[in-house]
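Support request, please re-run this one:
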Amino acid sequence: MTTEKSSNADQTTAVTATMTQKPKPRHLPAFKVILHNDEHNLVEHVVETIVMLTPLKQQEANERVREAEAIGCSLILVVHKERAELYAEQFQSRGLTVTIEPAD
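Re-run finished. Output below.
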């Protein structure tokens, strides 16, 4: 009888260990969302759009727009590919030029 209890205890331990081990999360590839400067949109419209569509606040949006004006483009966010594609579509629907590229 001692052997059976030990065997059951071993099985219970093995099952418990298996149940508590979580699979490692699979990370989606990161993509950059890049705002491009243009001569068609007012700064206010661009800032308003960034604040409306992204988690960035007013000050951060202003900084990104100023950077795009100064050097031609600015990194807005780094997100997974599907989300980056959605951002690009949303910005485009508001008349802004945004591209995405792999973050590696």
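The chain has a mean pLDDT of 87. The first strand starts at residue 30 and ends at 36.
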